[in-house]
C-alpha cells in the first residue's frame, strides 16, 4: 500500500507549477487529495477497539447490580460520581486504569498498556473518537497509514510514561494521548509544508479548536491531561521526522527505465529534504522517551515538587471529586438501610439498601470523606 496520494495535475508541470500562471499548485489541508482514497484502516481499527473496550467496561461496571439501581440512564454512575457519564472508579481500576498505588511495584506495569484503551465516560468517548476520526483520517489520506500508525503508537507510549509521573490516588485513563499525538503531527505537517496548502489559517483554527475542547475535557476527573501533553509533544516531533511533502507531481506517462530512475531520484530527494531538522527532532524525541523511562522506573512523583500541577489534570468543583482520599468509615445496617459515616469529617450517607460489596463501600467512603 502506498504512503502518498496522487492528485490530478493536468495543467501543471512535473514540479507542481501551473504552466500558465507559473504558480505552484496548492491543496486544502483538510480535504481529499484524490478521488482514489486510501483505506484508513489505522483509525478504523482504533475506533473499533475503543468501542469494544468501553462496552466491556460498562459490563464490568454493572451499575444496576453493584449500585443497586442508583444509576444515570440505567447503566452509568450518577453524574456527581462520574460527570462524564461513565463507569465507577472501581470499574476503571479493574479494567486497568492508572493509579499511584498501582505503580509502586512491577505488578502494575501492565496498566501502562491498558490505560490508553480506556475512556472515562460517554462524553469522553464521543468527543475523543470524533476528533480522532476528523484528524486521523485526514493524516492517513495525506501521508499514509504506516506513518500515521507509527505516530499513533509512539504517542500512546509517551503519554502513558508521562502519566506515571503525575498520576494521583485516583484512576486515570490516557486514551486521548493518541489523539493529541495526531494533533501535534498535523501541526508539524502543516507548518513543514506551509506553502503547499491553500486553507492554512482555517486548518490552524480547526486544530486549535479540537485541541482546546479535548484539553478542557482532560480537566475533568479520570482523564489524564499530562499524557495528552506528552502525546502532543511526541506527535509534533515525529511529524517533522516522518511526514514528507504530500505527493503533488504528475505520474510519468512512460514507464521506461530512464523515467523510472528520474522518478525514484526525485522521491528520494523529497524524503531526504531538511535532514538537519529531521535528525534534531528525532534526537529530541528519543531523549524525551529515555528521560521518561528513567523517571518512571525511579517511581518519581512530581506532585511532591509541584503544588499546582494537579490543577492541570483536574479542576476541583462541587460537582465532582478530583482526588480519592484514603478514608475510614463506619457502616451500620438499620431496618434495611445502610448508614455510612466518615470518621474524619463525621459526614454520613444513608442508602436505602444493604448488601454492598467491600469495593463499593470503599468507593462510597472515599466520596463521602472528600
Automatic annotation (TrEMBL):
Chief place where the protein resides: membrane
A Gene Ontology term for the protein's cellular component: membrane
One Pfam entry name: Rhomboid
Lipid bilayer topology: Multi-pass membrane protein
Biological processes annotated in GO: proteolysis
The EC number(s) this enzyme carries: 3.4.21.105
Role: Serine protease involved in intramembrane proteolysis.
Family named by the database record: Belongs to the peptidase S54 family.
Protein name from the UniProt record: RHOMBOID-like protein
